[in-house]
Design goal:
The chain is an alpha+beta fold. 39% of the residues lie in helices and 18% in strands. It folds into four domains: 210 residues, Histidine kinase-like ATPase, C-terminal domain (Heat Shock Protein 90); 137 residues, Ribosomal Protein S5, domain 2, CATH 3.30.230.80; 92 residues, 3-Layer(aba) Sandwich (Rossmann fold); 111 residues, Four Helix Bundle (Hemerythrin (Met), subunit A). The protein is built from 21 helices and 22 strands. The strands form four sheets. The chain has a nine-stranded mixed β-sheet with strand order 1-6-5-4-7-3-2-8-9, with helices on one face. β10 and β11 form a beta hairpin. Bound molecules: adenosine-5'-diphosphate. Adenosine-5'-diphosphate (ADP) binds next to α2 and α3. The site of adenosine-5'-diphosphate has 17 residues, from α2 and α3.
Amino acid sequence: MSQGQQYEFKTEIKQLLDIITHSLYTSREIFLRELVSNASDALDKLRFEQTRSTTLANPDLELHIAITIDEDKHQLQIKDTGIGMTQEELVKNIGTIAHSGSAEFIRQAMADQANSSNIIGRFGVGFYSVFMVADKVTIQTRSFNPDAKAVEWSSDGQGSYTISELDSDLPRGTTIIVQLKEDAKEFAEKKRITSIIKKYSNFISFPILVQDEKANTVSALWRENKFSITPEQYSEFYKFLTYDHEEPLDTVHLSVDAPVQFSALAFIPPRSADTFGFDRENYGLDLYVRRVLIQDKNKDLIPEYLGFMRGVVDTEDLPLNISRETLQENILIRKIASTLTKQILTHLKKLGQDKDRYGKFWAEHAKRFKLGYVDFANQESFGELLRFNSSRHENKDELISLDEYIETAKEGQKEIYYISGPSREAIEQNPHLEIFRAKGLEVLYLYEPVDEFVMDSLRTFKEFDLKATENADIASLEQFADTATPKDKPAQLSAEEGEDLERFLKRIQDILGERITEARISKRLSESPSCLVSPDGSTSQMHKIMQLVTKDVSIPKKIFEINQDHPLIRNLLAVFSKNEQDDFVTTIVEQLYESALLMDGYLADPHKMVNRLNSLMAEASTWYKNKQEK
Ligand code: ADP
C-alpha cells in the first residue's frame, strides 16, 4: 500500500460529525439503511452502464450486496459489486455534503442543540450516519472503469481522513468496513442485522446476503407490471404486509406518471382492524423511496376515511433522506394523496357493481368510510359510494345506493327522504314515517350518529335534496297520490265540531303552555294520535348529538300536532265539547305530549308518566271489569 495522505474534513462535515458522535440516538439502526441504499444505488448505476455496453471491470461479477459480520472483532462489512469510486470521486462524493437533507439536518441540529438526538432519527444523513455506531470506518473501492486503481479511505470521524491507493487487485465495487463502538456491539449480531434489513431494505432489487444468507426475501411487487402478477402473488404480498391470514377483499395496484411519479399497491382487508372505533388514528400507507422504506403508516398519503386500506406507495421523486417534518408539508405527497384518493374511489365504484363483495366491504369498513363527508373535493363520488337500509327492505341488512333510490323515485319527487333512529324497529314506529308510508315514498333509515353528519354536509345528491322526514314540507308531499289503502276514516267533522276543534287546540296550547310553540292539526299522521315537529329545519337526532356535545339537557320547544281522525282524539274532542275544563282532557294531553317526547328520546324522567299511566290503567280496569260483569 502506498503512503496514505491525510486530509482535513470540511467545516460542514465537521459540524455534522460533531453532532453525530456527541449525541445519544434512539434509532441508530438507520445507518444500515443508508449504507445499503448507497450500495443499491451503486448497483443500479452499474446496471445502467451495462446496458450502455461500456467495458467494465470484472464484467461477470454478480450484482449483489454482501454483509459479513465478525462478532469477535466487532466488525461489520458491507460490500457491493456496484459502480465503485475513483480516488477523485471518493474525495468529491464522501468529502462534501451534496444533498439538501444533510444541510437541513445540520441547520436544525445547530438551532436546537438540546434536542439534536431527536432530530437524527427523523433524518437520513447518508454515509456519515455510520459514525453513530462506528469509531473507525474504512472504505475500499474500485471503480467499474477497467483502468481505475483501487483506493482506500479511512477515518475515525474526528476531524480528518486519509486516502491511499491500494496495491492489491481489488474487484470492482465498494466495501465499507465498520469498526463498531463498544456500545454498538449489537450490530455485530446476525439476527439484529437481518431484522434491520427486513425492516428497511426488504424490497431492494438486488440480493442482500447476510453471512451468505439472503435476507431480502420478498420482491417489490408494486414495481412490477400488474398484468404479469397473479392473484396468488398479490395475496401472498398482502399477507406478508399485514400478517393477516385471510385473503384481501380487493387490490388496488397503480402506476402513475403524472402529475407525480409513483406506484401504489394497496389492499382492502376483509375485516376492519378497528372493530370498536377506538383505533381510528392508526392508519396510513408505507412510504418507500426507490424501494427503501422511509416511513411506515404515513398518514399524509391517504385521507382518514380511506384509512382501512393497507399498502405501500413508492416514488422516485423524493430524496431518500427527506425528514418527516418536510414530508408533511411536501406538495408531492399531497399530490400523491389526491391522485390516490381519486383512484381508490373509482376502484370502489367498480367494486360497487358486485353487490355481494361491496356488501362485505360496507359491513366492515362503512364506519370509517362515512367520515368522508368532509372530503368536499370528492363529494359526488363519496355520495355514490354510500349505502343505506331503507323502507323498501324487509330487514336491516339489505342496502341500496342513492342512485338506486333516485331510479325508483316518484315522478315529480325532488327530495331523498331519510329518518334516524337506533334500530329498524324503532324507526318503523316513528309517526313521521306515516305519511311517507301512505304515499309510498321511500325513506332511508339511518342508524348511526355519523349518518346525520353525512346527510347534513352532503345536503344534495345529484339533483335531489336530502331531507329528514320530520322536516319535509307536507304540502309538497300531498301532490303524491295515496298508494296504501287508507284506513277507514271516521265521518267528517260537522261545522260545530270543527269550531270545537279550534277551541280544543287552544286548550291544548293552554295545558302545555311554554313547552310547545304551537298546537295544530297534523297532515302527516295516519296511525298515531299525535307527534312533535321541529319548527326550524334541524332534526331531533342532530339536536340530540349537539346536546351531548354541549352537555345541554333542556327539552327543545316544538310544534305539537294531533291527528283529528284518530279515535282517541275524536273521543277527547267529544269530552272537551261537554266540559272544556275536564281533567281527563288535561291528563290525556299531558300523556300524549310525554309519549311524543319519549319517542323522540327526550323524556329524561319517566316517574310522572308512569304514575299517570298507572292511574289511567286503574280507571280503565274498573271500566273493563264492570263491562265484563254486565
Ligand atoms: P447520498 O447517498 O445521499 O448522496 P451519502 O453521503 O450517503 O449521500 O453518499 C455520498 C455519495 O457517495 C453518493 O452520492 C455516491 O456518489 C457515493 N457513494 C456512497 N456509497 C457508495 C457506494 N457504496 N458505491 C459507490 N458510490 C458510493
